[in-house]
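Renewal narrative, Specific Aim 1. Our central claim is that a sequence can be written position by position from structural information alone. The example that follows is taken directly from our test logs and has not been curated for this report. It begins with the structure tokens describing the chain, in the order in which they were read.
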């Protein structure tokens, strides 16, 4: 499939139309015409309104809120392209929903990250392009190529423009250590780690902090901001340990479920830097929220995949 030489066509679902339009503009192509509607009972109907036979098709659809609707829409789009004899179908999933369950933590639990991988493949995807998976091992759930992009360079370039010489990169919990160290290395800053204990499905409490944060500006980085509970708890312990109340938070996917906006509006947080992998409605765009575009990164990856060029240069 990777030797396909058909015409490049980019299609977009309803999850994040503005991102799709920005990617198409970067590639100097028009978004492909596709009709997506609902039957009276809520079932999704998809019909591509232009020829797809033999084309190199890219379908842009983050699996964001409402997650089930957008996932099903993506699967139906892939199935329609497969039945239309597309030459190669790449599912461009900037935000991969259901990724938090990548293993069984208790008996009788699902592994939804694997389930979604199976569904995408069965529906017709020959390749997947995504950004900052919640767990890197999800790549191994696929038997098709997966291009896993990172938003780290976007955040590092943005932060370099600020005078943050007295900063420290802080891992808000042990799950954020790897990406926090990568950011610290890029910015040549020290690293601190907050160890937290889970006390509920979406609740953690800080237990211990390792590293010097006193008098420093904390920078935290996450793959996703959901309720912001972990980050809010980390801010509490940082300020208590003498860090400057000027916290910078970076996150690729701004899910911002309730009560994230309220928690991120606290005075100790100076700026929240995210990308547009998922749409952010106006009511969630608080003044301290900065949105960086992931469109150039995704568009360049699409261009390289289409031309059968290396994508690995974009991973660093």
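The sequence written for that structure reads:
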């Amino acid at each position: 499939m990777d030797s396909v030489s058909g015409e490049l066509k980019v299609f977009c679902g309803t999850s994040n139309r503005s991102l799709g339009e920005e990617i198409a503009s970067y590639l100097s192509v028009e978004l492909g015409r596709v009709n997506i509607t609902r039957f009276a009972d809520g079932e999704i109907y998809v019909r591509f309104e232009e020829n797809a036979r033999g084309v190199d098709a890219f379908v842009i659809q983050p699996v964001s809120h409402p997650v089930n609707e957008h996932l099903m829409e993506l699967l139906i789009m892939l199935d329609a392209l497969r039945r239309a004899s597309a030459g190669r179908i790449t599912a461009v999933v900037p935000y991969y929903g259901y990724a938090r369950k990548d293993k069984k933590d208790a008996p009788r639990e699902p592994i939804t990250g694997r389930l979604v991988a199976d569904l995408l493949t069965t529906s017709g995807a020959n390749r997947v392009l995504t950004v900052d998976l919640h767990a890197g091992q999800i790549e191994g759930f696929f038997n098709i190529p997966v291009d896993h992009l990172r938003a780290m360079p976007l955040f590092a370039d943005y932060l370099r423009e600020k005078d943050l010489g007295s900063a420290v990169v802080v891992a808000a919990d042990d799950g954020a250590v790897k990406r926090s160290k990568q950011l610290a290395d890029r910015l040549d800053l020290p690293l601190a780690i907050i160890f937290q204990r889970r006390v509920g499905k979406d609740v953690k409490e800080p237990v211990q902090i390792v590293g010097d944060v006193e008098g420093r500006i904390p920078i935290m980085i996450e793959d996703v901001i959901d309720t912001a509970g972990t980050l809010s708890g980390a801010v509490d312990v940082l300020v208590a340990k003498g860090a400057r109340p000027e916290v910078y938070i970076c996150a690729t996917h701004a899910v911002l479920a309730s009560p994230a906006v309220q928690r991120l509006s606290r005075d100790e947080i100076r700026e929240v830097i995210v990308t547009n992998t998922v749409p952010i409605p106006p009511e969630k765009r608080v003044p301290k929220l900065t949105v960086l575009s992931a469109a150039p990164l995704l568009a360049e990856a699409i261009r390289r995949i289409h031309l059968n060029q290396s994508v690995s240069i974009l991973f660093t």
